């Protein structure tokens, strides 16, 4: 709960006054905000203050780069993400200008000395704890910002900060409320649960009427989705490649031009002796020359070690070692050699000569690459042919034949790409965008030429539309029978648990009840908080609620469902929270939540005072631009 409160409090401020409370350029992304560019249309205006389209686009782009740095470069731009970031940027820009409008009416100002202190205090401009003007100027050059512009931006930030602080500075959270919250949240309880396993309940086989009644009562769980019959002509490099022949001369020419890619350079493995000084390594070399092995020398001499190098290719070692190693024959021992790592004595243990894969070995893969390249070159003309066929009134099948595309007829596919049997369609790769187009189209209205994200072209025609409907019993008999059985077993488990609870209230112990009922088992509930942290997952949130609603030594008022049946819950112990557990953090979380509430109300008041006008056409244009 504490984490959720923190996130909520932070979220309000970020969403409504994005960046207003932070002076650091690293968060504001000033480098992107102030880059030059041609003027653009105004997207929003309030109190004579404009929000230009180019500012929103730069802020959205900057936000996306920050997301990429946090989530990894694998995050790709897509319309939904970019539209969300742009709308967030619009709200932030409006929020800044609302505060600016309020400040202008109050004649607020920030003096030069305060602005200078704020800039000098930013760590990014400091060296050794002191302001470094060269770093400041380098930042301005890299960001394309004039010093005067940056100073005025900082002045505006400080003014907004002062106004926000004035509005929210008096907000305080009472410690007594924080203590009550911590005591409630951190309290733990122990208990026991007598669980009646539903799977142990014996039930009769359902008749036809019972299944029909059950299906009717639960028809929402047994809906057949909308299915569509569709004809597709799909054109990709792989489809055109089947008709392309690559001659031997072309393969040989490609092999010669790419021969370096099939060459594996010579590799060597070596054994080395390593010492800290020249005298020691020369003594080691003398012993090796007299017939001792590297291992014997390393074992006998203090300060000498032996290790293996490689396999390595020429150029992978430091220059001196590299030249020495590749100048030796196999089995040869080099001269002592000094490097930054110490003094070395090398012996070549093995040499793997350079290898070149012959044409015969790589012919098929080369031919496939050339075929793919040629198919890609032919793809635009083939796609145009398919488009012309449709535009001329041809069918999808005729368009496929004219362009050399693959023709596929699907009898039934749902919006997720599954067939009528619930299995993925295998005859053609259907991505989300293709399915979206198919399910937005009308019946017997051939599509325009479309392109997928993986550069396939396609046209389609919806031949049949079967609306979503409740499934008939003969279609889902097994599923309905199983669900009916499980529901019936759970009902019997609840009835059995209710009977056991009545006996427990009359004085029979839970142990005796567990022994008397074959389907029942007695479980211990270890200390658990209200949010079920540390909770036995064999039970359920309902069991936790019953545990906290019951005083120690008492039984819960009624049985509760658990994943595998029904349970009687008994509380055995209350473990109170530590007196000062997270009090300071909770006070701050409450304060931030209250501060966020104040900011929300203040922003609404500012919007009422300074109406915001948004040019929807300009906004739509920017959304389209950032989504590309």
Automatic annotation (TrEMBL):
For this record, the Gene Ontology CC terms, alphabetical, are: plasma membrane
Q: Which domain of life is it from?
A: Bacteria
Q: One Pfam family of this protein, by short name?
A: Rotamase_2
**What's a Gene Ontology MF term here?**
peptidyl-prolyl cis-trans isomerase activity
Residue ranges annotated as transmembrane are 12-31
Kindly give the membrane topology term recorded for this protein.
Answer: Single-pass type II membrane protein
Q: Which SUPFAM superfamilies match?
A: FKBP-like, Triger factor/SurA peptide-binding domain-like
Residues of the signal sequence? none
Keywords assigned by UniProt, alphabetized: Cell inner membrane, Cell membrane, Chaperone, Isomerase, Membrane, Rotamase, Transmembrane, Transmembrane helix
* Ranges of residues in domain PpiC: 265-350
List the subcellular locations.
Answer: Cell inner membrane
Family per similarity comment: Belongs to the PpiD chaperone family.
Q: What is this protein called?
A: Parvulin-like PPIase
> What species is given as this protein's source?
Marinimicrococcus flavescens
């Amino acid at each position: 709960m504490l984490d959720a409160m923190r996130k909520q409090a932070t979220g309000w401020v970020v969403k409504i006054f994005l960046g207003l409370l932070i002076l650091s350029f690293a968060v504001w992304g000033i480098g992107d905000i102030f880059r030059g560019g041609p003027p653009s249309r105004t997207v929003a205006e309030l109190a004579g203050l404009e929000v230009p389209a180019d500012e929103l686009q730069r802020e959205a782009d900057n936000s996306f780069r920050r997301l990429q740095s946090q989530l990894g470069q694998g995050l790709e731009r897509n319309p939904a993400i970019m539209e969300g970031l742009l709308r967030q940027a619009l709200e932030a820009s409006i929020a800044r200008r609302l505060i600016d409008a309020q400040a202008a009416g109050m004649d607020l100002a920030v003096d030069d000395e305060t602005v200078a202190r704020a800039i000098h205090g930013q760590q990014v401009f400091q060296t050794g704890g002191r302001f470094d003007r060269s770093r400041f100027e380098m930042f301005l050059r890299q960001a394309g910002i004039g010093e005067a512009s940056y100073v005025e931006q900082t002045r505006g930030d400080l003014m907004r900060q002062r106004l926000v602080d004035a509005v929210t500075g008096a907000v305080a959270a009472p410690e007594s409320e924080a203590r009550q919250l911590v005591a409630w949240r951190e309290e733990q309880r122990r208990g026991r649960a007598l669980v009646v396993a539903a799977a142990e309940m014996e039930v009769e086989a359902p008749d036809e009427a019972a299944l029909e009644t059950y299906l009717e009562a639960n028809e929402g769980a047994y809906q057949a989705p909308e299915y569509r019959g569709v004809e597709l002509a799909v054109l990709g490099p792989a489809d055109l490649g089947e008709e392309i022949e690559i001659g031997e001369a072309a393969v040989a020419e490609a092999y010669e031009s790419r021969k370096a890619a099939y060459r594996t350079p010579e590799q060597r493995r070596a054994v080395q002796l390593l010492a800290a000084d020249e005298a020691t390594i020369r003594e080691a070399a003398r012993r090796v020359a007299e017939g001792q092995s590297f291992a014997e020398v390393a074992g006998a001499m203090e300060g000498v070690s032996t290790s293996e190098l490689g396999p390595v290719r020429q150029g992978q070692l430091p220059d001196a070692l590299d030249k020495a190693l590749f100048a030796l024959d196999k089995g040869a021992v080099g001269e002592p050699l000094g490097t930054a790592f110490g003094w070395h004595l090398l012996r070549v243990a093995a040499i793997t000569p350079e290898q070149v894969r012959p044409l015969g070995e790589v012919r098929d893969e080369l031919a496939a690459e050339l075929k793919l390249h040629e198919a890609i070159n032919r793809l635009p003309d083939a796609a145009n042919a398919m488009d012309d066929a449709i535009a001329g009134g041809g069918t999808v099948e005729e368009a496929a034949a004219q362009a050399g595309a693959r023709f596929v007829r699907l009898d039934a596919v749902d919006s997720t790409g599954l067939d009528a049997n619930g299995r993925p369609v295998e005859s053609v790769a259907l991505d989300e965008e293709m399915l979206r187009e198919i399910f937005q189209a009308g019946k017997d209205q051939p599509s325009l030429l479309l392109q997928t994200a993986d550069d396939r072209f396609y046209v389609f025609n919806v031949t049949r539309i079967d609306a979503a409907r409740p499934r008939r019993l003969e279609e889902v008999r097994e599923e309905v029978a199983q669900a009916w059985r499980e529901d019936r077993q759970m009902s019997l488990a609840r009835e059995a648990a209710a009977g056991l609870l009545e006996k427990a209230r009359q004085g029979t112990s839970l142990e005796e009840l567990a022994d008397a009922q074959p389907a029942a088992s007695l479980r211990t509930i270890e200390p658990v908080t209200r949010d079920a942290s540390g909770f036995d997952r064999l039970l359920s949130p309902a069991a936790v609620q019953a545990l906290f609603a019951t005083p120690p030594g008492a039984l819960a008022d009624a049985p509760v469902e658990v994943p595998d049946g029904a349970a009687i819950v008994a509380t055995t112990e209350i473990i109170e929270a530590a007196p000062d557990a997270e009090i300071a953090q909770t006070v701050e979380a409450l304060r931030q939540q209250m501060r966020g509430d104040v900011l929300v109300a203040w922003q609404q008041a500012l919007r009422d005072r300074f109406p915001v006008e948004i040019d929807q056409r300009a906004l739509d244009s920017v959304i389209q631009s950032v989504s590309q």
